[in-house]
Amino acid sequence: MTRLLHDFPDQNAFDAKMQAADRRYYLGSRAGLTTIAENYVGLPMERVA
After folding, report:
1. Domain that includes residue 14, residue range
2. Which residue in 7, 32, 33, 37 could disulfide with 25, CB within 3.0 to 4.6 Å?
3. How far apart are CA 13 and CA 5, in angstroms?
4. Is the whole model's pTM more than 0.70, yes or no?
5. Would you say residue 42 has pLDDT above 80?
6. 3-state SS, residue 6
7. Whole-angstrom distance, CA of residue 47 vs CA of residue 49
8. Which of 46, 21, 26 is nearest to 36 (CA)?
């Protein structure tokens, strides 16, 4: 997530293009947004008796 949201001064052209592609996927598609939501929220917790 850090690599997705932050630009680093030492990243090369390839890394910058990969970051842009990741941003387009995550922010530009329902599947990408679902992936972020599921990973952010995490797995359901089981109730411990």
Report:
1. 1-41
2. 32
3. 17
4. no
5. no
6. coil
7. 6
8. 26
